[in-house]
Amino acid sequence: MPAHDGTQFFLFITDDATRYTWCARFSKKEDLYRTFKNLHKHIERTHNITIREYRMDGEFSGGP
After folding, report:
1. What is the reported pTM?
2. How far apart are CA 18 and CA 25, in angstroms?
């Protein structure tokens, strides 16, 4: 069921070292890559770091 703003999906990125979590919302599965890329850039820019590795749960590995 969509939220009041139309979003249906959430992307969570958690730093394993600090357990800090970022969240981004999006409306369609097709928006996942764009949302991920934007959040990745935001984290690197605001914290002046380079993200070297991601662990995924495989939710979107099969494609839309």
Report:
1. 0.74
2. 22
